Amino acid sequence: MEKEIAIDIIDLHYSYPDGNKALDGVHLKIFKNEKTAIVGPNGAGKSTLLMHLNGVKRGQGKIIIDSLILNDKNLREIRKKVGLVFQNPEDQLFCPTVFDDIAFGPLNMRYDKDEIIRRVKNALKFVELEGFEEKSPFHLSEGEKKRISLATVLALDPEILIFDEPTSNLDPSTRRRFIELLSRFEKTIIVATHDLDFVLDFASRCIILNKGKIIADNKPDIILKDRETLLKNGLELPLSLKSR
To answer: Which pTM does this prediction carry?
Structure first.
């Protein structure tokens, strides 16, 4: 059976105002329920690519999300389908209480009060932070902030989840717990990360992006054992493979 395409990226280009080219003709298909990791050195274009997938950034080329072309007409519907969790929770959390942060998306989608409350409670239950509604997000631990950031996205029940460096700044125990949480999803998931051991544990597909171009695309255990390709693209063997 042919795999269903969740995201189709066709000849995507993007340059910053200073002329620096961040994406240079990216062609990429992401399949439904696939767990894809995008790796590469700093400045490779990973975060820029992610921010194109729900219209935060807009370059030249075409992006199709679940048969919808990403454009101004479809942007509202696409943002229901694609949830983006930023690397830094402070970029996602800005309200005085956890409830307000999680309710922000459903409120903007004009759900009624009872539906908003239901979505907030369900999102908090999934990230195992029930009862946090009235807490200030600014007084939480880094791991709790990461989970609340995820809850703000889950409140819209997206079909596709996108994470920028989901395990950064987490201690080992909190990191393991967060990976276990992500592993529960039966959704299309894309992560950009420097944590190559996380890629081995979590992803079914690994893509190397460098200088705005796709360099390699294969299973993680194939790509992340290729020392020569990794070194050429500013990466090193995962720690778990170095010890073997």
So the answer is: 0.91
Q: Is residue 38 a part of any domain in this protein?
A: yes
pLDDT digits (tens, 9 = 90+) for 94-126: 999 999 999 999 998 889 999 999 999 999 999
DSSP for 116-166?
HHHHHHHHHHHTT-TT-TTS-GGGS-HHHHHHHHHHHHHTT--SEEEEEST
Residue 201 lies in a domain: yes
Note the helical H segments in the chain: 46-52, 75-81, 98-108, 113-126, 142-154, 172-183, 196-202, 220-223, 227-232, 239-242
Strand partners, 175: none
Total tally of structural domains belonging to the chain:
1
- Judged by DSSP in three states, 52 sits in helix
Range of the structural domain that residue 221 is part of:
34-50+81-242
Assign residue 88 the CATH number of its domain: 3.40.50.300
At 95, is the secondary structure helix, strand, or coil?
Answer: coil
Residue 21 lies in a domain: no
Contact 144, 172 (CB under 8 A): no
Mean pLDDT of the region 191-210 = 95
- Is residue 27 within 8 Å of residue 11, measured between CB atoms? yes
22: Cα separation from own chain's centroid: 18
Q: In what order do the strands lie in the sheet containing 68-69? A: 21-31, 5-15, 60-65, 68-69
Q: Is the distance from CB of 31 to CB of 188 less than 8 angstroms?
A: yes
Determine contact, residues 28/216, Cβ cutoff 8 Å.
Answer: no
